[in-house]
């Protein structure tokens, strides 16, 4: 099966290289049938005209799964390359209707949380489902500035969008082990329904959908209270579902509690396609130096395989990765001095 | 000078009682000229028709300063009392044009942060300036639900609103000691200008205003990155300025890093009026049991006095409060067993 691979900018090609080596090894050793088709798409090739948005979307539509490295290059700020790279990610999400942005918040083995009470692997382990196809973000394709005096964006919440993202969250909760604290399966609807009608609408639809999932507890929390909760009692969380912009902010917050964006991986899922990517950026300051931490890229790859139905291979990746980290192999951001290649080789050796 | 006092619901009257005792003691011992005029305004009295919004606004306009306890009572959810209480706070903010919501994030003596690297008082000490008169929140007074299929709210950002809140932030930064880490004075503009035009507009106006403040460093950060920063390196922060909704979420996040809402105090400031309140709610579950922590209410009082030009008295309050806490006096939420009255008496004794 062909998978589209977007190499991105900055550290993108380096960490993608790690992911591809792992996919190839799984092919050689265990017969995984995945063929990564690499595309040199990123701020640089958008800037020099080698690629444009429509062209990328046309290619993307040929695939069931996409593996995406971070994009963006601040050097191209003046010529628009970085803005174009950002448009790639938002256009892929919106135009391919990848409505569920799945962002696990999981304390991996060997990684330190900045929170005092959370020291064991998986003591923080929940998933944020960020609505990815509407909300405040949809105004990216609209938005108004009037006479340099006033600017307006819209937050749009639809029944269809809220129903499908709520269902997605409950279906995911079914498949989890529940919260680390007591194994209870729950979905928390996060909004500011006390202040805005669109959020109250979101909550209402969520509540309708929840009645079809008796076995999962439906909970409700305001976004400000959730920001607190994620710091004070993250072990009580299982699945969170929220609007696009809240999901953006809360998922970065979650990532910070489990060691930072270096460990934040994600999937953007539609009813028939999935795009998988690290949450972190292209880190141009450390690009080309063979020191980038490929963990989030590798975990995104694992998530892709799992979603494609290759859960067995995804398990092999995670076991080998965690064993490597447990045995002390760490990149500089993790306080060690392993290079990206050494880190990757250690994983491959474990497989 | 008369000050309007809103007693609120739940623990409101209890913690307000602590604040009033302190004000009265400052009057007796040191001649502070403040006369608290108490109003029994909250969800209950809104629900039973004793008060209505217009009436409250008319009264409020007679004062320069308002001290407000938390409002809301979940028991009144069906009759609308809680919604009305929420409308009081939003109406006061919007109708009195209290455009600057000042929310200090400060690790007080004797309070434990959940963050591993932050153990000393004031090792976290910065201020979030939440724009309080427009942004996504202004849609509270509008908002549309269409055919039960779709809901829309607007985020409105104006030049006037952004100029004045930016100026406010820079003026505040001037008066601070800078960041705990290195004393550098800075204002960080927090937005998602990469995604929405209204945020790009916010950033542009902020940047224009910043050019008038050469002595303060102007910085820029996306809201998701700021959520991380507040957990990973809060000691680098001095003043943050942001849109209303982001300010709501980020200030609760900040509060969590300094021990929770029990220690989060705030001011809502216009060009000629100020309303001061704890950020926490009315905690109906512990109301009437004399165990509520009045710290946020007392710190809000101190902030009010400082804003009114009575900085000397504000200093006396803080010194006595911190001494009481340092000497081991703690309410149950702080891990002790002091009652609200004992906690208050300990402060009064120190004054
Ligand atoms: C790059 C940016 C547009 C993107 C977003 O805001 O969604 C990123 O922050 C993310 O969370 O994936
Ligand atoms: C009570 C609610 C309307 C309020 C808000 O959302 O602003 C509160 O959360 C706050 O932060 O003061």
From TrEMBL, chains A, B:
<dbReference type="GO" id="GO:0051287">
    <property type="term" value="F:NAD binding"/>
</dbReference>
<keyword id="KW-0100">Branched-chain amino acid biosynthesis</keyword>
<protein>
    <recommendedName>
        <fullName>3-isopropylmalate dehydrogenase</fullName>
        <ecNumber>1.1.1.85</ecNumber>
    </recommendedName>
</protein>
<keyword id="KW-0479">Metal-binding</keyword>
<keyword id="KW-0432">Leucine biosynthesis</keyword>
<keyword id="KW-0520">NAD</keyword>
<dbReference type="InterPro" id="IPR050501">
    <property type="entry name" value="ICDH/IPMDH"/>
</dbReference>
<dbReference type="GO" id="GO:0009098">
    <property type="term" value="P:L-leucine biosynthetic process"/>
</dbReference>
<feature type="domain" description="Isopropylmalate dehydrogenase-like">
    <location>
        <begin position="2"/>
        <end position="347"/>
    </location>
</feature>
<dbReference type="GO" id="GO:0000287">
    <property type="term" value="F:magnesium ion binding"/>
</dbReference>
<dbReference type="Pfam" id="PF00180">
    <property type="entry name" value="Iso_dh"/>
</dbReference>
<keyword id="KW-0464">Manganese</keyword>
<keyword id="KW-0028">Amino-acid biosynthesis</keyword>
<keyword id="KW-0460">Magnesium</keyword>
<dbReference type="InterPro" id="IPR019818">
    <property type="entry name" value="IsoCit/isopropylmalate_DH_CS"/>
</dbReference>
<dbReference type="InterPro" id="IPR024084">
    <property type="entry name" value="IsoPropMal-DH-like_dom"/>
</dbReference>
<dbReference type="GO" id="GO:0003862">
    <property type="term" value="F:3-isopropylmalate dehydrogenase activity"/>
</dbReference>
<keyword id="KW-0560">Oxidoreductase</keyword>
<comment type="subunit">
    <text>Homodimer.</text>
</comment>
